[in-house]
């Protein structure tokens, strides 16, 4: 019998913010896959899950570089998919760890597509996790949406898409803000959203910061693990 693949959201950082279902699966699987930006780099996802793993678990490190080069990315997803498939073909159940929720900008979605394409007979189950922005809103004590409000979730990349998202009435979650931080600051300022925005770094981790005066950070290097929540109206922080 072939093994089953589980995509597991481990939450944003606090090991208590992982679901009971994820913990139960982690105790049972034979292999845990840990995505890494470069070989040997300590994995935060593994650190979160560590206490829930069985002693004899096999750890499969997958190097998935942070690059904008599409060819390089596709090669890495393909290699990762093949390595995972090798384990599944041996009948081992495999858990792929992902920070936050696997459905939100996660490498897991690309790698699981590769596996689906190569081996459609493999059973795959995705176990959701708490997203970084859900925890960020909770830590700031601010609701993400109320009544008829809408929410835009946007990775910083295309500048025009970013500007368009800030024009309307939606609440906006900006992720991957470190890619173009000073532009984000100007965009919030120009759209008169600065007063109702806050930045959260390393949410759920011991280095967590929640900052209101985002404009003061212009010119500084921002931690990749940071996001901004831009509310459409003032909230007491
Ligand atoms: C590749 S996405 C992964 C998102 C993740 N799957 C989730 O559900 O939150 C990485 C981006 O998520 C945000 N992020 C992830 N973890 C975070 C944390 N603990 N605190 C603040 N932002 C975080 C940052 O914007 C970061 O650039």
Structure, explained:
32% of the residues lie in helices and 21% in strands. The protein is of the alpha/beta class. It folds into two domains: 123 residues, Tetrapyrrole methylase, N-terminal domain (Cobalt-precorrin-4 Transmethylase, domain 1, 3-Layer(aba) Sandwich), CATH 3.40.1010.10; 99 residues, Methyltransferase, Cobalt-precorrin-4 Transmethylase, Domain 2. A hairpin with a 7-residue loop joins β8 and β9. α3 crosses α4 and α6 packs parallel to α7. The structure holds S-adenosylmethionine. The site of S-adenosylmethionine has 24 residues, from α5, β8 and β10.
Name the features.
237 residues, alpha/beta, Cobalt-precorrin-4 Transmethylase, domain 1, Methyltransferase, Cobalt-precorrin-4 Transmethylase, Domain 2, 2 domains, binds S-adenosylmethionine
Layout of SSEs?
Layout: E1 5-9, H1 20-28, E2 31-36, H2 44-49, E3 58-63, H3 70-89, E4 94-98, H4 107-118, E5 124-127, H5 132-140, E6 151-155, H6 159-167, E7 171-175, H7 181-190, E8 197-201, E9 209-211, E10 226-230
Parallel strand pairs: 1-4, 1-5, 2-3, 2-4, 6-7
Antiparallel strand pairs: 7-10, 8-9, 8-10
Helix pairs in contact: 3-4, 6-7
Bound molecules: S-adenosylmethionine.
Strand order of the largest sheet: 3-2-4-1-5
Q: Which quaternary structure do these chains form?
A: single chain
Q: Which hetero compounds are present in the coordinates?
A: S-adenosylmethionine
What composes the largest sheet? 5 strands, parallel
What is the mean predicted local confidence, pLDDT? 95
Straight-line distance between termini: 53 Å
CATH architecture of the largest domain: 3-Layer(aba) Sandwich
Assign the CATH superfamily of the largest domain.
Tetrapyrrole methylase, N-terminal domain
Low-confidence stretches are: none
Counting DSSP E segments of at least 2 residues, the number of strands comes to 10
Q: CATH class of the largest domain, please?
A: Alpha Beta
Query: What is the percent of helical residues?
Result: 25-40%
The secondary-structure class comes to alpha/beta
- Percent of residues in beta strands? 15-25%
User: What form results from the Cα inertia axes?
Assistant: elongated
Radius of gyration: 19 Å
Please give the domain count. Answer: 2
Order of helices and strands: EHEHEHEHEHEHEHEEE
CATH topology (level 3) name of the largest domain: Cobalt-precorrin-4 Transmethylase, domain 1
| DSSP helical segment count | 7
